[in-house]
Amino acid sequence: MLPPTGTIPVAILGPTGYTGLELIEILARHPRLRTTYLASARGNAPRIDAEFPRLAGLLDHATAQCRPIDHDAIASACKLAFLCLPHEAAMQHAPALLARGVKVIDLSAAYRLKDPHTYQQHYGHPHTDLAGLAHAVYGLPELFRSHITSATLVANPGCYPTAAAIALHPLLKAGLIEPTGIIVNAASGASGAGRDAKPHLTLVEAGDNYSTYAIGTHRHQPEIIQTLDLNHSQPASHANATAASQVPPLLFVPHLLPVERGILETMYARPTSLDADTPRLMAALRHAYASEPLVVVRDDAPNLRDVQKTCRVHVNARLIAGTVVVVAAIDNLIKGASGQAVQNANIMLGLPELAGLV
Amino acid sequence: MLPPTGTIPVAILGPTGYTGLELIEILARHPRLRTTYLASARGNAPRIDAEFPRLAGLLDHATAQCRPIDHDAIASACKLAFLCLPHEAAMQHAPALLARGVKVIDLSAAYRLKDPHTYQQHYGHPHTDLAGLAHAVYGLPELFRSHITSATLVANPGCYPTAAAIALHPLLKAGLIEPTGIIVNAASGASGAGRDAKPHLTLVEAGDNYSTYAIGTHRHQPEIIQTLDLNHSQPASHANATAASQVPPLLFVPHLLPVERGILETMYARPTSLDADTPRLMAALRHAYASEPLVVVRDDAPNLRDVQKTCRVHVNARLIAGTVVVVAAIDNLIKGASGQAVQNANIMLGLPELAGLV
Amino acid sequence: MLPPTGTIPVAILGPTGYTGLELIEILARHPRLRTTYLASARGNAPRIDAEFPRLAGLLDHATAQCRPIDHDAIASACKLAFLCLPHEAAMQHAPALLARGVKVIDLSAAYRLKDPHTYQQHYGHPHTDLAGLAHAVYGLPELFRSHITSATLVANPGCYPTAAAIALHPLLKAGLIEPTGIIVNAASGASGAGRDAKPHLTLVEAGDNYSTYAIGTHRHQPEIIQTLDLNHSQPASHANATAASQVPPLLFVPHLLPVERGILETMYARPTSLDADTPRLMAALRHAYASEPLVVVRDDAPNLRDVQKTCRVHVNARLIAGTVVVVAAIDNLIKGASGQAVQNANIMLGLPELAGLV
Amino acid sequence: MLPPTGTIPVAILGPTGYTGLELIEILARHPRLRTTYLASARGNAPRIDAEFPRLAGLLDHATAQCRPIDHDAIASACKLAFLCLPHEAAMQHAPALLARGVKVIDLSAAYRLKDPHTYQQHYGHPHTDLAGLAHAVYGLPELFRSHITSATLVANPGCYPTAAAIALHPLLKAGLIEPTGIIVNAASGASGAGRDAKPHLTLVEAGDNYSTYAIGTHRHQPEIIQTLDLNHSQPASHANATAASQVPPLLFVPHLLPVERGILETMYARPTSLDADTPRLMAALRHAYASEPLVVVRDDAPNLRDVQKTCRVHVNARLIAGTVVVVAAIDNLIKGASGQAVQNANIMLGLPELAGLV
Description:
Shape of chain A: globular
Radius of gyration of chain A: 20 Å
Number of domains of chain A: 2
Oligomer: homotetramer
Strand content of chain A: 15-25%
Number of helices of chain A: 14
Mean pLDDT of chain A: 95
CATH topology of the largest domain in chain A: Dihydrodipicolinate Reductase, domain 2
Largest sheet of chain A: 7 strands, mixed
Distance between the termini of chain A: 25 Å
CATH architecture of the largest domain in chain A: 2-Layer Sandwich
Strand order of the largest sheet of chain A: 8-9-7-10-13-12-11
């Protein structure tokens, strides 16, 4: 289909945020994909190297000038588009691009939650592209690679859910941990909150600080539950109880770290039996990811430095004090966003999956 | 007993660490206590203002010169001594000072764990002052004030246990949370690891980083369990089971934050019933600490900035997703160490409890 | 005049910024001054402990509620007011309070530059209180203490000028450095930029970063020049030259550091002769500040940690490579703002100068 | 000479420091160079992915095991070696490798200063490879590219000198600034101090801090002076004066920043005439670097974020207050060390100069 060599032009819609910046830098190292069209919704479209001086010289002079979001122009110039837009805007532009034959990878949350009611409940507005939602593929290659190959619309996973799903999926599948009562105690660098200047994100407020937020109410909680298929594994005694319907099978508690990038999740689960010891937990992880180049299963707990500026997931599990403790780390902007988006693009376009990502 | 005005001379043994530095600064603002004797075990005793230039001018010229640890000299000069020494050294010097009539507040872990076998198991060496251990009082004023008043030897609590015990004690006492299966997910600034330069504590390694360590094996885990009296509240079905004896009622999982100071603990517990809702949890905390000036019970979760450089504890609790989530924050060097030591000194000497601490 | 004991009520106008927060915390430790009136220009005046949760319990419940800026109410309640307002607002409220007998310490720049044309040139709006400007006293106690004693309106110095003036004044006065061609290379923590969330001040942008700004155009450059009286010391050959009038005698180059607080200034000057060696430079500093408790003259260069959370200035000077290099450090929020304001208040009210500041 | 495709095996001696880590990561993205031999002087040679867990999976299993420094084995396996060793060790191993036909890029300071007496004066030990020193080429491609092409031994420049030389060279060459009285006020992230845990480099001491060190005595001062050929441009009135010989033409004043990586240098020089205005300064920079892809000449001052994790130099110059102010930024580990080393390797091996560096 695609020629074995030569460059493939791609577009980025919404390049002035941190995921856009990261995409541009990753694609500059990519052997085949070339950023050709930067599309900004701003009235006065900026030059991207004025917006981010570190990009000076990375794109040719004309490409660095952002242009309007013109579906026809994008479609005539590009095979694939990365959407780094607000959720509502993504639902507007994705179908228009798909209709013009452009494959779409959406980095917003617009196409992640399969149930539009769940979406509306957590994002506060109705879903406006149910057709797209129906055929969108959740782009977590380590779990759903086969579906991504033929996808035209990929929902790029959230940063927190990427780490949690990769870490917990093998343990659930192997029946080593209970599918209820899971706690995901997570911590993220501030780039996860986006580029807008908010009072609690200034250096004075967020530096030298550490805080928890959205305890049990974060939008990534239903995304993790969906990806791990936990609602379907609720015990029967709960399934038909009204009260129980208010008790989700997993509690997600994020914290804000005084760093730019990186996510570390410390997860707690109940073992299904006394057999769920550390060797069995580790074996399940190693077996699941034996052929996955981006997942590092290790004997000790990872930290942020181990994964920052990489597209890898590091994961460790142990049984201690009767509790299964799983620790996973990723770079929220790379494996948690733009790197995984390029991984998905590579799969969708039949390129080597790690192209541009080492 | 003590004259109503006038200064009371105190000594600091081991002033060249971070708890020593913090003590000197707190005492410089104290209306009654005066640092009179700095005793260092170093062969070549340093000037404290050469060791910490920020102390220049805070002590008179002669006092700033550290002297040897001379029990008689200390006893003739001081009413009370703060021990900022390694555990083994504390066990050696505390009885010698007590025998000379000097009250002792020990900031090491030497006198915290009442059971010497537990101590040896977790600290790796036998306890050498069983007599002292027998009458030492655990210096957490909000829980054990009446015992501190008449104490001559106070074991100043660990930093992590201070926050956990203050946060969880009222909820356990009120019967709102189960005394087993508690998880204390904690994070601390690097000053908690002391002043020695260790490879993982350099700015390059620890800055912009976040890691977990000593999962379920940290020495503060038995201290928290003892302070909350959790072993005695084990259900009968566990009490006589060998296997269960290996399952502690509380799992403590610390993390290292890329900040100098501050502890935030995010704690998870099972409610004893559906009645243990947020209002009841908060009411139990408010009732317990209605008269405690250093405990702030608040409706939202605290963060590090709320408590850094203060002697206060901020605490919040809620029921969410069927789980009780309690968040507490302290400054590890102040309420978690030197500030609480001064609070204990004030109580032991009959001074206003908050003198020097506002 | 003032009774020897008892508390003196003071007001803070504009308490919701970082200098207001710092003032409240310093005054809470002050033996005589008591914060009695918090006046905010916001339409919906906040509770200060909602604005800054770390203040919980530090003020009585009623005082913590901010009130409107009511000159009569402030005058009936307070002896002295600290103005932490924008420059224009300060010029509006200072005369109204002075007219009602309230002493005023203004932490804005409104009354710092004696020449209203210079003020307008650098601050972009005309000065609207020339009478106040005429009798305002520049509140740098180490240089102008005698004028502060009887002042009713004190212009609290800028943060950068405080460090530069204290460091350079003795060397200029002793004739050891040339009064032209001075370079003040300064670096400040981000709290100096205020509490507003600006894009370049977020943790992601300002953390792990370091940048220079306003090279040679910062408003503090004329303030330093005025305080050191450098324009009057221009050599005759320059004084009547038009071109030379465009060459200021001192170049101020600030940098933004990825820390909350602290200023370090590295200053370069030409020695007047070969006699201006390191011992003579240090002797001039030691002689000037022999009786100043807040100035520490030291043999090595200070750093931020030496002064953070203190009201002290640390300073060092040397001759190297034919250049006089002077290094000074302060805490920008304390000696550079609120601490110095309290020092000025103590002087104006006849209290011990260091009350509340140790 | 070299085949147009295919991989070229290279060795890294001393891979367990930060420049070694950075080299391994850069080479993992390089299309032609492949890390084949990691040689460590440690008695118990570690696995590099145990030393740096973030390298897991980046090298094949056998290569990740460090081996002894065996000259014959290295020569039989590799065309080129990067030396990330202490200065003395570099002088020992470089000639042995060169004798075996291995090209050498030395990242230590061993071969930077051409005069062995100057070397001994600043590094405290005699130079032991005068033959190597005589033919070593200073590897700053933007200034000395033609010499690097045929070099077998390249002295990779120091981090601070790289930024200073690139920024100042065109202005000196164009005769716009005086070759004396230059001040280089520099600031670097802590990775520049290496990986050893030293007391002043811990997170608690160096975080939230900023300090100056080695004022006028840093080893990079003579390296900058040599690279800019400043000693030869001393005015005649100085050249024969003993006293003046102690006044170097350039004063280098480094500062330590609380960040991992990045160097920003703020440089001050006297213009040679009133014609040396901002447009002429900028024109000289733009002219010099019009064809240099790694040098970005820009209208505003750069900051660390603009260059971190890139191999680029950003530079800006202006005339203000009668002074030429030049600001340059690099990543100290990349353009200031390992990235420039790969740039040199590319040149020496006839590869595209930017291979692996975008």
